[in-house]
Design a protein that fits this description.
CATH topology of the largest domain: Nucleotidyltransferase, domain 5
Strand content: 25-35%
Order of helices and strands: EEEHEEEHEHEEEEEEEHHHHEHEH
Structural class: alpha/beta
Number of helices: 9
Number of domains: 2
Largest sheet: 5 strands, mixed
CATH superfamily of the largest domain: ATPase, nucleotide binding domain
Shape: globular
Distance between the termini: 18 Å
CATH class of the largest domain: Alpha Beta
């Protein structure tokens, strides 16, 4: 029979939707993509919740009648057990702080009484890539998602490692950098947009502009310089770069690899399907 999970991957700019089918016989999960919708993460709470409800409806439509539940990968800080946003000062979702999103979605979408379960977006991306993407078959993988914020996930045999000693892996983005700010602010796509003097909506065009190639390459060097001691600290055997910025890996990847050293660096292989697979696995199969 198997199990079908509707999935949303909620980022600061867009909501990716789809469904994942797991077969009881242990075969490869099948991922079906749905539409990507705007998040409107800097709008009023009612607008943001409306966007999330539209994403839930789109994911449920892809999953069909056999759907067993809704998995939501979401950026943080976020209380995944309670389904409540704790985001403040991270360039997005300020207006939904403290809101029970599960209850809000039941009120605004067609999810009805189906289970709604949340997962961290970076852990979802890292788990998906470790299960069936760039990190498949590698024991310890550090996945870094470079989007509106900077997300980090360490997996060991495709299972998230939440702590290295007393340090929470997801808090890596809060570490200071040599360039005057937290990694989340300086090394994310948002940080690159600031360096280029571009709005986030115009970042892709700015990155593709040949006149900006040296800044894009230097962003790779900075990211690699920041990650080099982390790779040693975390005993990572591979670094995977995901998120929207990974589309420019051909430009920033070589200087990033040079700065990290001998541990290999690869772009994410699954694209938007990686977080969908990871979120479904973490919330309904783990």
């Amino acid at each position: 029979m198997g199990q079908v999970i509707a999935v949303m991957d909620v980022g600061g700019t867009s909501i990716k939707t789809g469904a994942v089918r797991f077969d009881d016989g242990g075969g490869e999960p099948r991922i079906a993509a749905g539409p990507a919708l705007p998040t409107n993460s800097n709008e009023a709470a009612d607008v943001v919740i409306g966007s999330l409800a539209a994403g839930a409806d789109a994911a449920l439509a892809v999953a069909g009648r056999e759907v067993a539940g809704l998995a939501i990968a979401i950026c943080g800080p976020f209380d995944i057990d309670a389904g409540i946003s704790r985001m403040r000062g991270v360039h997005k979702f300020e207006e939904i702080y403290g809101i029970d999103l599960g209850a809000a979605l039941r009120h605004r979408s067609t999810v009805s009484e189906l289970p709604i379960r949340f997962a961290r977006d970076a852990e979802s991306a890292g788990t998906g890539e470790s299960l069936a993407g760039a990190g498949a078959g590698v024991d310890r993988v550090l996945t870094v998602t470079v989007g509106t914020g900077l997300g980090t996930c360490l997996t060991e045999r495709a299972q998230p490692v939440e702590f290295i000693g007393d340090f929470g892996v997801e808090h890596l983005a809060m570490r200071a950098t040599p360039w005057g700010g937290r990694a989340d602010d300086v090394l994310s796509a948002h940080g690159l947009a600031d360096r280029l003097g571009a709005a986030m909506s115009d970042l892709r065009a700015a990155v593709d502009d040949p006149t900006n190639i040296e800044i894009v390459r230097d962003h790779g060097t900075r990211l690699g310089t920041f990650l080099a001691p982390v790779v040693v600290e975390f005993d990572a055997h591979l670094v995977v770069i995901g998120g929207g910025f990974s589309a420019a890996f051909d430009r920033f990847g070589p200087p990033l690899q040079a700065a990290i050293g001998t541990v290999p660096v690869r772009p994410a292989a699954l694209g938007t399907a990686g977080p969908l697979l990871g979120a479904a696995h973490l919330t309904f199969r783990r």
